[in-house]
């Protein structure tokens, strides 16, 4: 049995990434890892499984469970509208950038937090379903206790840094099993490869989806204080396994370790013997470690919890060099029996190792309002943060003034003027109105009649029936048409 075998010393591994940590700073902090058979609850592999850890955005799994539980109880519905408050809109990224007052269905909100991991939307779920974020945090804690998550403390629904909020690998495995067991009709929510909002397509942050055969959920998370975390589920030959990996220095290393743990777990017996999640002993550690100085070195670019498949080949190779050094240092501290699950991590081949390319995305449409036809939606040019905008009113076209010279004298038949329903009067009537001969009056009036895009628009613009010079065209003022302003007040995005 490999339970609680100390495979890795996190700070020792980070020496390969930063290269500047003193040996004294490399404290014995073990990265939590856990592999569990979903049906039996049997622990297939574990280390530091009950140690407290900052959850980051895997918190949103608890947010989703509480929301789905409220729907099951009839206290909420998937099509009810949630309103984005100023407080929700002010949450830092990752976010959708919705303006205060924007409304979105709970169904779309859950899809967004599972794929985009939007902090503003998760905050709105908490406010709307719990009456306040504190009220929703109370529901999270009550639910955790009922499920047997004895190591968890929740204060917010999105996982942004809070020294009072932590969980454990064991508790997240319990939560993952509860989601799959209690809401089988909502399992697809945790395996969406991408969402489409307006013109923006946003892939799931889970780098295992579409890259490791059988992976069908669940959620990733990253903050500097907790490193890169993931709760993932995979199915092979009808057997489902949940893997939890926490505290990794990069998304790539997190994904590779999770894949190795899946390989190891599927190779183990699915029997009912052995240790279960309920059997795991309490941790002697009183509070989670703060990894900020090691994960987010100010001299290096800020790490991101993005799909590692988007990395270029050169970046992948460069990261591989660092990860290989990290793996060697970690494996050196592990006993031989524990190294089975990570045999490939202690290898020079790691620098060229990567998961397969991601399968084509299958985006799921999300929108604001109750129905996609209710609002016009726009996205940023980079597609990173999509923004909703109010439906634009139809603008009247700028008034065009004819400047052609007078035509030879011909009887002018009646002809329509665009969009107005008016007609050019006949020659005799024009002669009485203008005091000119019939033919000249017809040509003069036709050259001075504006073409208008919308009925009811008035203009006094007139020009002589002669060739227009470029200098005159620049000097001629253009009529202004005021567009109706959207009702929603603009809010600066973070």
Automatic annotation (TrEMBL):
<dbReference type="GO" id="GO:0008360">
    <property type="term" value="P:regulation of cell shape"/>
</dbReference>
<feature type="compositionally biased region" description="Low complexity">
    <location>
        <begin position="304"/>
        <end position="318"/>
    </location>
</feature>
<protein>
    <submittedName>
        <fullName>D-alanyl-D-alanine carboxypeptidase</fullName>
    </submittedName>
</protein>
<feature type="active site">
    <location>
        <position position="117"/>
    </location>
</feature>
<keyword id="KW-0378">Hydrolase</keyword>
<keyword id="KW-0961">Cell wall biogenesis/degradation</keyword>
<keyword id="KW-0133">Cell shape</keyword>
<dbReference type="InterPro" id="IPR001967">
    <property type="entry name" value="Peptidase_S11_N"/>
</dbReference>
<dbReference type="GO" id="GO:0071555">
    <property type="term" value="P:cell wall organization"/>
</dbReference>
<keyword id="KW-0732">Signal</keyword>
<feature type="compositionally biased region" description="Low complexity">
    <location>
        <begin position="473"/>
        <end position="486"/>
    </location>
</feature>
<feature type="active site" description="Proton acceptor">
    <location>
        <position position="60"/>
    </location>
</feature>
<feature type="signal peptide">
    <location>
        <begin position="1"/>
        <end position="28"/>
    </location>
</feature>
<comment type="similarity">
    <text>Belongs to the peptidase S11 family.</text>
</comment>
<dbReference type="GO" id="GO:0006508">
    <property type="term" value="P:proteolysis"/>
</dbReference>
<feature type="compositionally biased region" description="Low complexity">
    <location>
        <begin position="388"/>
        <end position="419"/>
    </location>
</feature>
<dbReference type="Pfam" id="PF00768">
    <property type="entry name" value="Peptidase_S11"/>
</dbReference>
<keyword id="KW-0573">Peptidoglycan synthesis</keyword>
<keyword id="KW-0645">Protease</keyword>
<dbReference type="InterPro" id="IPR018044">
    <property type="entry name" value="Peptidase_S11"/>
</dbReference>
<feature type="domain" description="Peptidase S11 D-alanyl-D-alanine carboxypeptidase A N-terminal">
    <location>
        <begin position="31"/>
        <end position="249"/>
    </location>
</feature>
<feature type="binding site">
    <location>
        <position position="219"/>
    </location>
    <ligand>
        <name>substrate</name>
    </ligand>
</feature>
<dbReference type="GO" id="GO:0009002">
    <property type="term" value="F:serine-type D-Ala-D-Ala carboxypeptidase activity"/>
</dbReference>
<keyword id="KW-0121">Carboxypeptidase</keyword>
<feature type="region of interest" description="Disordered">
    <location>
        <begin position="298"/>
        <end position="321"/>
    </location>
</feature>
<dbReference type="GO" id="GO:0009252">
    <property type="term" value="P:peptidoglycan biosynthetic process"/>
</dbReference>
<feature type="active site" description="Acyl-ester intermediate">
    <location>
        <position position="57"/>
    </location>
</feature>
<dbReference type="InterPro" id="IPR012338">
    <property type="entry name" value="Beta-lactam/transpept-like"/>
</dbReference>
<feature type="region of interest" description="Disordered">
    <location>
        <begin position="388"/>
        <end position="494"/>
    </location>
</feature>
């Amino acid at each position: 049995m490999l339970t609680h075998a100390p495979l890795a010393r996190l700070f020792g591994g980070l020496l390969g990434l930063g290269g500047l940590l003193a040996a004294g700073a490399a404290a014995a902090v073990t990265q939590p890892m856990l592999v569990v058979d979903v049906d039996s609850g049997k622990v297939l592999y574990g280390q530091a499984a009950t140690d407290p850890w900052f959850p980051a955005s895997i918190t949103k799994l608890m947010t989703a469970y509480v929301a789905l539980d409220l729907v099951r109880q009839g206290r909420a519905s998937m099509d009810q509208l949630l309103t984005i408050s100023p407080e929700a809109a002010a949450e830092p990224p990752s976010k959708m950038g919705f303006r205060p007052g924007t409304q979105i269905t709970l169904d779309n909100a859950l899809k967004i937090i599972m794929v985009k991991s939007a902090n503003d939307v998760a905050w709105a779920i908490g406010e709307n379903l719990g009456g306040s974020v504190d009220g929703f945090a109370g529901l999270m804690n009550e639910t955790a206790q009922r499920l047997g998550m004895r190591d968890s403390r929740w204060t917010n629904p999105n996982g942004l840094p809070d020294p009072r909020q932590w969980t454990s690998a064991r508790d997240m495995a319990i939560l993952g099993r509860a989601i799959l067991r209690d809401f089988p009709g909502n399992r697809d929510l945790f395996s969406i490869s991408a969402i489409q909002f307006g013109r923006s397509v946003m892939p799931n942050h889970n780098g295992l989806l579409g890259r490791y055969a059988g992976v069908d959920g669940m959620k990733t998370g990253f903050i500097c204080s907790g490193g890169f975390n993931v709760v993932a589920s995979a199915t092979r030959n009808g057997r489902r396994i949940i893997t939890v990996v926490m505290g990794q220095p990069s998304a790539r290393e997190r994904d590779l370790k999770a894949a190795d743990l899946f390989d190891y777990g599927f190779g183990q017996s699915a029997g009912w013997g052995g240790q279960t999640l309920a059997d795991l002993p309490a941790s002697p550690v009183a509070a989670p470690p703060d990894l900020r100085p090691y994960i987010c070195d100010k001299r290096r670019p800020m790490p991101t919890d993005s799909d590692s498949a988007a990395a270029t080949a050169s970046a992948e190779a460069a990261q591989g060099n660092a990860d290989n050094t990290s793996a060697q240092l970690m494996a050196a501290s592990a006993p031989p029996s524990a190294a089975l699950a990570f045999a490939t991590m202690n290898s020079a081949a790691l620098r060229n190792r990567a998961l397969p390319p991601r399968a084509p995305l299958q985006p799921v449409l999300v929108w604001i309002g109750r129905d996609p036809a209710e609002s016009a939606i726009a996205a940023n040019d980079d597609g990173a943060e999509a923004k909703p905008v109010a439906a634009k009113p139809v603008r009247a076209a700028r008034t065009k003034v004819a400047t052609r010279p007078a035509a030879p004298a011909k009887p002018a038949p009646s002809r329509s003027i665009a969009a107005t329903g008016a007609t050019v009067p006949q020659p005799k009537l024009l002669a009485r109105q203008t005091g000119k001969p019939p033919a000249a009056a017809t040509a003069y009036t036709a050259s001075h009649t504006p073409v208008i895009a919308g009925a009811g628009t008035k203009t006094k613009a007139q020009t002589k029936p002669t060739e227009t010079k470029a200098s005159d065209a620049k000097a001629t003022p253009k009529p202004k048409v005021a567009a109706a302003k959207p009702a929603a007040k603009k809010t600066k995005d973070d």
